[in-house]
Each structure stands twice: as structure tokens, then as C-alpha cells.
Amino acid sequence: MILRRPRGGSSLRGSHDLGREFAILSAAHGAGQKVPEPLAHCADEALIGVPFYLMAAVDGIVADSPAGAARLDPAARARSAAALAETLAELHAVGVGTAAFAGFSSGERYPTRQVERWERQWRRARTRDLPSIDRLGARLAASIPPQREVALVHGDFTLFNVILDPAGEVRAVLDWEMATIGDPIADLAWCSMWWPDREEESAPGAEPIPLLPGFPARAELIAAYAAATSRDLAALAWWRTLSYWKLAIILEGILKSWAEDPTSGGKDPGRLAPGVLKAVRLGEAAAAEAGI
């Protein structure tokens, strides 16, 4: 079994509700999705000091480091992008109008609510004046795309949050902390943000594993999703802009947590601070691509 509990020291309050995460993991499992089996949830902090839940362990490969990726042969690496895209398409096909999802957001106005939410998070997370983040947020707010549908949105769907088998197929999707009902293109944008084609495009905060030999180009990930869903991806660049902006705010929040409590698990601010600025620069490039 795996025990999942909140991390300590987060400045982004309300970012990890274990009961909510367990409920949406249970709903996804009940819908036949590739997720670990949820076993039990404990909200009583008296037991171990924090709420927690238990889920079944899933054997496989997590390619979140060069060592993990080394367990995938060239054929498995080549397959991984399409496998992720097809798994994401399956998640987005789950019927969210069922009773299992009745307690979650309706998903309406999702892009607007995302901009509003992360503006609030920025006010809580900021440790310094960064006009570039404010400007990028204003550009996003002024160009919100129409929402065409709602779906189960994982919120942090990446190569690093799945367990693969040796052939590169997805066995389980992990880390449902940010899951909700919303616009499915948000998940594709977030996943593609972590799938760079060049080192200078790599998002700060994680190893750029897809740059290792054998992994396909970002375009193949996007094309595989488009083929599996036939969705209109016209708003993808807007959602990728939002993803970089969110990432900058998240990194700034970690920086703030580290400053408030160096034992909280945050990284050296000497590395984090430039990462915030890089995320904004990448967001500005994505905004230019989106024409906003």
C-alpha cells in the first residue's frame, strides 16, 4: 500500500484536500480509469498528525529522472507520448454527469475561474514585485477563450505523474491533488509544457526527460491526442500560456514557503528564483504564439 499525506509548509493554502482527492480518485477508479485502487481515507488527524489516505501500490516505471527513464528502451520511449495522449483522452471521456462526480464543480466558466484563482494565489505567494507576472495575467484575462465542453481534468497530468510498464504503456495515473471538472484542453497544455523540444524550452522545476534520446517530439504528443479525441485545439496556446503563468506562481509559492520555513522541503531559492522568471519568459513566448 501507499500512504498519501499533505506536504508541509505550503503557502498556497487549500492546495491539498486529501478527502477531496480520495473522492475524485475513487470516482475515476469506479469509471474504470488507470488509477491506483483507493483503499481507505482517514480525516482524523489524531492518528498520525495529519489526514491521509491509502491506495494500492502499482508496480512499474516512473520516468521522472534519467535513472527512471533509463529503464525504458528506445521502443518504449517512442511509445510513451502516444500512450500518455491516449490515456488522457480516456480520462476526458469519463462521464462527469454521474452521481460519482456530483459533489464536484460543474466545470462551467473554467478558464475564467482558473485566471481568477491563480491571481488570488499570486497575491498570497509573491515575495517580491514581478510586473511581468501581473502583465501576463492581464493578457490572459483579456483573451479568455470560449469553453466548448467540460470533462474530468487531472490538473497535473505529466510524464512524471504516471506509472509506465516496460513497453511504455500507462499502468496508472498518480497525483490527483489538482483534479476537477473543467476544460480538457487545460490538461493537454500542462502536459505539453513539460514536453519540450529544446533545452531552452524546458520548464523549470523538473528534469526535461523528453529531451533524452528516443522520446518523440512534442508535436507527436499533441497529434496523438488530437487523433484520439478529434477535439478542436485552437485554444491550446492560450492554455499553455496559462500553464507557464501558473507554474511561475507555484514556484514563487515554494520560494515563499522556503523563506518562511527552510525545513519545509522547498528548494534552494538560488535555483527557484530564476526559475520563476524563466517560466514567465516561456509564458510570454506562448502568449505571442497565441496572439494575445
Could you characterize what this model shows?
The chain has one domain (2-290): Aminoglycoside 3'-phosphotransferase, Chain: A, domain 2 (Alpha-Beta Complex). Helices cover 45% and strands 9% of the residues. It has helices spanning 18-30, 66-69, 74-92, 110-125, 131-141, 185-193, 218-229, 236-260, 269-290; strands at 2-4, 38-42, 52-55, 151-153, 162-164, 170-173, 180-182.
Q: Key terms for this structure?
A:
292 residues; mainly alpha; Aminoglycoside 3'-phosphotransferase, Chain: A, domain 2; three-stranded antiparallel β-sheet; two-stranded antiparallel ribbon; 9 helices; globular
Helix-strand pattern? EHEEHHHHEEEEHHHH
Mean pLDDT: 93
What distance lies between the first and last C-alpha atoms, to the nearest angstrom?
Answer: 46 Å
Poorly predicted tracts of residues: 9-14
CATH fold group: Aminoglycoside 3'-phosphotransferase, Chain: A, domain 2
- Structural class, please? mainly alpha
As a percent range, the share of strand residues is: 5-15%
Which oligomeric form is depicted? single chain
Instruction: Give the domain tally.
Output: 1
Radius of gyration from the alpha-carbon trace, in angstroms: 18 Å
Write down how many β-strands occur, each being a DSSP E stretch of 2 or more residues: 7
The first-level CATH class is given as Alpha Beta
Task: List the total number of helices.
Answer: 9
Strand order of the largest sheet: 1-3-2
Shape from CA axes? globular
